[in-house]
Structure formats: C-alpha cells, structure tokens
Amino acid sequence: MKLFFSKTLNRQLLSFMSVIILITMTLGAALLIYVSSTQTNYVSERERLVQKQELALQIETNASQMLIHARGYLAFETDTELAAVNQKIEVVNESLDQFGILDINQQDQEFKEEVETLVNQVEQFLPIATEMIENGSRDELSELRVSSGATLVNELTSLTSSYLENSNAMLAQLSTKYIEENNIVLWMLFGFIIIFIAALFLIVRRIFTKIGKPLSDLTTASEQLAAGKDVNLVESRRDDEVGILSRTFNGMVHTLQEKEEELIAQNEELISQQEELETQQYKLRSSLEETEQVRRVLEKYNNLNHSISVTLNEQDLLDTIVRHLSDIYPAERMAFVLLKGSRKVAMRGISETLIKEFSTSFHDGIGALIQETKNYHQVQRKSNRFEQGIADELIDVFDLYVPVYSSTNDLSAVFCATRLGSCFSAKEKEELHGVMGHISIAIEKVLLYEQTEQDRQVNQDIIDNVNEGIQFVNKDGTLLRSNELFRNMIDMKVGEECGLHYQAWKEKFLQSVKDSDKLEQFFEEVTFSEATEIRSLKYQLLDETKIIEVYAEPVFKSGTRTGTILVHRDITKEHEVDKMKSELVSTVSHELRTPLSSILGFTELMLERELKPARQEKYLQTIHKEANRLTNLINDFLDLQRMEANVQTYHKTSLDLKELVIQVVLRFEPNHPQHQFIIRDLANFTLVWADSDRMEQVLTNLISNAVKFSPEGGRIELVLTNKEDTLHVHVTDEGLGIPETELTKLFTKFHRIDNSDRRKIGGTGLGLPIAKEIMEAHSGRISVTSMLGEGSTFDISIPYEKQMSLLPISTIQPNEVDRFKVAIIEDDQSLALLLAEELKQSGFEVQHFLNPHNALEHIKEQQMDAVVVDLMLGDDMDGWDFIQALKQSETTKNLPVFISSALNEVRDKAEEYGVSKYLTKPYPPQELSSIIKNTLSSDKKNGQIVMPEE
C-alpha cells in the first residue's frame, strides 16, 4: 500500500489531504450536532416556561374578575353578577385543567392546588350569600363581604405574584445556561479553526518538503548549467516524478557536457566560414549599392522624361526641369532661362534681381562664349560674402552653363548651376549636355501646343461671340463642337458637348422647343441624308417668345462628306419688324380710310344732291371734324418722326401743370358722363418749365386712353404730388388693365395689344411712344403699373422750377396722413384753382370736381372732412340739389358744407338749410380756409352749412 502511494506526488498529496479533510469534517459534524442539540433544548424549555406563565396570567386575570363579580354580587345583589361569577369559575377551572396537562413540577402543582382551593372557597360562600340575600340578612351579608372578599383577593394576588417571580427566575436561569453553552461552543469553534490551520500548515510543509526543495535544487543546477559551470546534483532515489526528473536532468547534464566539446570544434570551423562569407557579402553589398545607385539615377531620369513629356504648360515645364535636375545633380543654385519668346525663368536659390541681370547681360558675356564653342562651360571662382556663409575663409565656387539648342540650331535656352566647394565632374557635364537635347524637344513641343491651343481658343472665342448658335455634328450625328450660345439654348456646360450622341443632344434640344416634330424631322434629314443643298427651318422656344431660324449645310473634306454644320439664328426682331409693318399698314389703312370715307361720302352727297342749308352746314361740320382727325393722325406720324430724328422743337415756358390738367379734364368731362373725373392736388409746387402744347398732348393721350380702355365707365383719377425735385401726375382708371407681358412693349411705336376686347377700340399705337419722347425731351419720364382686369396707372414726372423752392411752405407737409380732406365742386376753373391753392397752402388735401354727380358718388365712397360747393353748377343739378343729396345720405349728412356763391342766390333758402354764418363775396380766400380750419378743429361736425355774405 505504501509503495502504491509513493509512486506519484498526486497520490501522496491526495491521501494526506483526504485524512486532514476527514478529520476536519468529523470534528465539524460533532460540533454542529452539539450546537443544534443545545439550541433545541433551550427553545423547547423556554417555550414550556412561557406557556406556563401565559396560563398563570390567564388564571390570575379570570380569577380576579371572578372575585370582582363575586364582590359585585354581594354589593348589588343582582343575578347578572351571579351569572358572571359562575361563568368565570368555569373559565378558571378550564385554565387549571390545561395547566395540569403541561409538564409541571412541584411548584407548579402547589400553585394549581392553591388556586383550586381559592375557587372552592368562592363556590362555597356563594350559596351562603344567596341565602342571606333571599332572607334579607343585610348585616351578615355585609360582614361576609368584608371578611371573605378582601381575604380572597389578597390571597390570589400573593399567590400569583409569587408564582410569576419563580417562573421569571427560571427563565433567567435558562438563558444564563444557554449563554454559557454558547461560550463553550465558541471555544470549541476556535479550537477547530486552530486545528484546521495546523492541518493546512502540515500540508504546505509537506508540499514544500516533497516538491519545493527538489525543484529548488534543480533550478540551481539549471542556472549552473546555463552559466557553463560544473553541476553537482545529488541523484535522488525517490520513485515519484521529482525523483524521475532529477535522474533525467543528471543524464541530460552528462549528455550536454559530452556534446559541448563537439560544438566548440564545429563553432571554430563556422567562424572561419563566416569570415569568408562576410568578405563575399561586402563585395556583394558594394555591387548592390552601385546597382541601386544606377537604378535611382535611371529612375530619376525616367521621372524627368515622363514629367517633361506630359507637361503642356511652359512655366510648369521649366519648374519641372529645375526640380528634377536639382534632384539628379545637386547644386546650391540652379536656373533654367528661356532666351526667346516669353523668356520665362525657373530658378532655385537665386533672387529675381540677379536672374534679371543675368538675362540682360548673358549674350554679351557667357552667351557669346557658348555660341562660339557650341558646348557647356564651367567657371571656377572664389565665393562672395553671401555665398561664404559661416565659413571663416573664401571657398571655391563652380558655375556651370549648359546651352539648349532648338531644332534649327538656335540657342533657345540655357541651364545654369552653382556648386560651393566642389566642381561638376566630366561625366555629369556630358550627361547634362545629353539631357538638354531631350529638354529642347520637350520645350518645342510645349511651345507648339500652346500656340495650337491659343489658336484654338481664338477660334472658339470667335464662334462663342457670334450672335448665332453653332453646332457641328459628324455623319453619325455625334456632336463634336458648339459655341456658347448653342450650349445656353440646351442648358449645357462647356465640354459636355464633346462626343454627345445624336439621340442625347436631340432630346435635350427638343425639350425646349414648340412643335418639336417638324424640327426633329429636319434634324434627321440634314444629318443623315446625302443632300448637298442648304436647308432651313423656323421654330420657337417654349419658355421665350423668340423665333429661331436654323439652317444646315453639309461639310466636305477632300470631296468626302464629314458632317453637318447647323446655325441657329435669332430672327425675333426681324419677325417683329415684319409683324409691325403688317400692323402698321393695317392700322394706317384703317385710320386713314375711316375719315377719308366720311369726307368723300359727305362731299359726294353735297355735289350730287340739292341739300338744305342746315344739312349742308351739318355735313360741312362733319367733313371739318374728319379732316381735323386726319390732320391729327398725320401730325402724329410727323411728330414721332421728328422726335426720333431729334429735330422736334419745343417752346418751353413757365407752366402751371395743375391748371393744364384741369383744362384737359374740362374738355373730356362733358362728352363722357359715364366716367367720374377726379382731380387730387397733393403737390405744393406745380410750376414746370415745359412746352404747354406738348404737355397738353401728353395729358390728352393719357386721359384719352383711360377713357377708351374703360368702356364700362368708372373713375378716372388724376393725382398731383411732389417727390424730391419732381412733379408727378398719376392718371388712374378702372378699365381693362394691361397684361404683364405687354408692359415692356407698351411704349413701342405702332404696338397694340393683341386682344379682341382692345381691337374693337381704335388707335394707331402712336400716342404712348409720342408721350414718352415728349417726357424725355423735358428731362422727365413716363411709367405704368397695371393689373389685368383692375385698371392701370400711368405716371409722368417732370422737374418743377427751382425758383419754387424759395416759396413758403405750409407747416402741414403734403405727406402727412392725418390732414383734412376738402372736396371743391366748382365749374369756374380760375376760382377753383384759387381756392385749391389757398387750401393746399393751409395744409388741406384738396380734390377738385367739375361734375356734381361724380363728386357726390366719390364723397359717399371716400371719407371727406368738408365740402366747398358752388350753387350754380349746371342744369341737371345745382348746388342746392347737391347739398340736399348730401343731407339725405347717412354717410354724408354730418359733413360740413361751405357755400361759395353770392348771397342773393341763397337768401331765400338760408332759413330752410340752417345757414349759420356768412362771408362777404368777393371775400379773401384765406378767410375761407380759416373758417374751414376752425370748423373742422372744433370737433363739432354736425352738418353745418357756412356761406358768404354780400
């Protein structure tokens, strides 16, 4: 058995640890059983004592209640108390029975018997007490209550207290015993831990003895072996792994020592071979370095050749040459200078000033010598103070100049290099001389490319600046070249057109063209057919109103068709001119024939028939009117022609444009009752330096257009305003309006809007162009804003006279939005101008009306602050009718009315209309403005009527 365990370390350690573990588990189990038994005994004993205490307390409580009810029965003599006593006696007896069942000792038995005795005493005196109560023996009953009740209670209290004290003492004794037993357990546990630690120590010590010491000896022997020392390891006789390892190690040591001598001999032989190999390696490395050096040089030459072959820019080529040559032939300074053409320079380590001096003096110095020898030239000199650097003495400097000859054997460039302290070898000079031949070819190639590219760019710039789209396609329809205008037509960037297939550029082009089917067929025919004639087609772009004509012509080279050139020309202006000519002929024919027809017709009637004088006069008036119309039409043509030729003369004088506006409106208003003419004078300065007849012509044209293009009637409002140094007149109507696309063409001569609603309205299309020429001749301008279907506003502006700026201005400026608005209804132009000027200078916004009907409708729509009215207005409505209409309207009945008329016209109606104040006529205008201002400032607008006195 011992031999079995001694064979391996595992078995020895396992057996030893098994014994230790078995002992530990046995001791632990015994300790655990002991602790469990002690705890179980303590718990059961304590529960028994606690149960006895609880029953004792229950017996005490019920017995006390029994005695209390017994004394209550003796005191109150009620059956309820008697029943309660009997009930408590039963409860106490039951508790005593339960107490007796428990494991009781002698003391418990005595307590039980004493309580039973007490209960028996109560049971004995209850019949006696009942009999006394029934017999009415009060004295005896009282004596019984005093003697028996108190005695029983005292006995019960004493008995219970004594028992509970003993019971608590027993519990305390039990707890003390349990604590002592636990202390014993702790000591036993401590001893167990000590034993366990000792067992672990034994295990570790045995492991160290069996394993650690032999391994330490082996480690020491291994270190000695590694250090080359003699190894003295005692051979172990153990049968386990350590013994086997020790014996094996000893065998290995002997083997190694035997082999060591052989290795030393072989090593000496290898050393000699190594020396020979190192010699060969050195030779090989030298050869390899030479080869690598040659490879690097060849690679640099290859990079140089590649760079100069792919570079197409002259300056880039020179920079590339200097960069690569400085890498192949290191030098402190290097430059490559072109001696012809652009004379560009690439340099390294040289200032621009020095290179300029060199270029200037080259042909008179080194250049002449090179030209004679046709070869390179090297100069040796001493360094200057800049080249010397930190050296404490002068050093040798070597300058090398290598010429570059063109294909015509002309000196075209020179290569310069400077080395400090070392010269260029003959080999390097020859190599550089050969390299310059390749560089000469590269320079000529770049120069040729740049010249070709420049010519190509000039040609491209020429066709790009041609005001026609040009494209060239080959026989397959592939787009090869185009100009900028064509690329813009199909939204294509520069370079995208090269090699674009037929289908691609055709689809892109047709997307922006109306009626693309015809154009597509045209492209097919001119691109793929063999026809030689020139063809053309007109088309229109989608997003624009441009008309384009494309014509195609085949291109031949050496008699062979190579492609087709297509030219797209914008003929919009020619198209518009043709259209304008047609419209001019049509318009002039119509406008001339109409009055001529009337003149000829009425003349024939007068010649062929006998007419009454009245009818003859009527016909003559018609002939005269149509002749004037014809004269005005011819004058318009002549005026426009003179204006465009800058031969029109203007007779400019100081002109009150406001007065001219009123005059023109007075001419139009009687003949157009369906229109409301409103004049709003918001200008402080209305005097201008202008030709009265021409300005009247402008206003007449604008108001005439407003009337003509408002066939349904409506308001025509003329507003005078000042802005900066100009006087503006705005003419606004509520007519047909103008399409936005027509606004830019509106002032073109003979142009008329192509619309059926407007074609019914006559006109030559000359009015607005003439108005524009007149305004520009007066340093003014004319503009228009319009909304289709809502009307138009024409604005003419002209500088007012500078002297006007010296006139006093009202404290209320025209641009104030809160000033009072006054309407003047007056058919006397001079008086209306006088009143308007005075009110305007006083800060009022004035609107002048000639027609009372128009004024009444406008006042109802627009909020006014006061009305100045003349009583003598017309046959259909006088001033009183106008005032009455104001008073009948809810919106205007409280509007203050100021009458401008003679008193004898209104004296009879003064009382009827409540005239409250009179002004003497003629009266100063400032008095009227003062009365209006005072009336409006009082905030009492109750519809009062104010009129002048005689």
From TrEMBL:
<keyword id="KW-0418">Kinase</keyword>
<keyword id="KW-0472">Membrane</keyword>
<keyword id="KW-0808">Transferase</keyword>
<dbReference type="InterPro" id="IPR003661">
    <property type="entry name" value="HisK_dim/P_dom"/>
</dbReference>
<keyword id="KW-0812">Transmembrane</keyword>
<dbReference type="InterPro" id="IPR036890">
    <property type="entry name" value="HATPase_C_sf"/>
</dbReference>
<feature type="domain" description="Response regulatory">
    <location>
        <begin position="821"/>
        <end position="936"/>
    </location>
</feature>
<feature type="domain" description="HAMP">
    <location>
        <begin position="209"/>
        <end position="261"/>
    </location>
</feature>
<feature type="modified residue" description="4-aspartylphosphate">
    <location>
        <position position="870"/>
    </location>
</feature>
<dbReference type="InterPro" id="IPR011006">
    <property type="entry name" value="CheY-like_superfamily"/>
</dbReference>
<keyword id="KW-0067">ATP-binding</keyword>
<dbReference type="Pfam" id="PF00512">
    <property type="entry name" value="HisKA"/>
</dbReference>
<keyword id="KW-0597">Phosphoprotein</keyword>
<protein>
    <recommendedName>
        <fullName>histidine kinase</fullName>
        <ecNumber>2.7.13.3</ecNumber>
    </recommendedName>
</protein>
<dbReference type="GO" id="GO:0005524">
    <property type="term" value="F:ATP binding"/>
</dbReference>
<keyword id="KW-1003">Cell membrane</keyword>
<dbReference type="InterPro" id="IPR001789">
    <property type="entry name" value="Sig_transdc_resp-reg_receiver"/>
</dbReference>
<dbReference type="InterPro" id="IPR029016">
    <property type="entry name" value="GAF-like_dom_sf"/>
</dbReference>
<feature type="transmembrane region" description="Helical">
    <location>
        <begin position="184"/>
        <end position="204"/>
    </location>
</feature>
<keyword id="KW-0902">Two-component regulatory system</keyword>
<dbReference type="InterPro" id="IPR005467">
    <property type="entry name" value="His_kinase_dom"/>
</dbReference>
<dbReference type="InterPro" id="IPR036097">
    <property type="entry name" value="HisK_dim/P_sf"/>
</dbReference>
<dbReference type="InterPro" id="IPR004358">
    <property type="entry name" value="Sig_transdc_His_kin-like_C"/>
</dbReference>
<feature type="coiled-coil region">
    <location>
        <begin position="253"/>
        <end position="280"/>
    </location>
</feature>
<dbReference type="GO" id="GO:0000155">
    <property type="term" value="F:phosphorelay sensor kinase activity"/>
</dbReference>
<dbReference type="GO" id="GO:0005886">
    <property type="term" value="C:plasma membrane"/>
</dbReference>
<keyword id="KW-0175">Coiled coil</keyword>
<keyword id="KW-0547">Nucleotide-binding</keyword>
<dbReference type="InterPro" id="IPR003660">
    <property type="entry name" value="HAMP_dom"/>
</dbReference>
<keyword id="KW-1133">Transmembrane helix</keyword>
<dbReference type="InterPro" id="IPR003594">
    <property type="entry name" value="HATPase_dom"/>
</dbReference>
<dbReference type="Pfam" id="PF00072">
    <property type="entry name" value="Response_reg"/>
</dbReference>
<dbReference type="InterPro" id="IPR035965">
    <property type="entry name" value="PAS-like_dom_sf"/>
</dbReference>
<feature type="domain" description="Histidine kinase">
    <location>
        <begin position="587"/>
        <end position="802"/>
    </location>
</feature>
<feature type="transmembrane region" description="Helical">
    <location>
        <begin position="12"/>
        <end position="35"/>
    </location>
</feature>
<dbReference type="Pfam" id="PF02518">
    <property type="entry name" value="HATPase_c"/>
</dbReference>
<dbReference type="Pfam" id="PF00672">
    <property type="entry name" value="HAMP"/>
</dbReference>
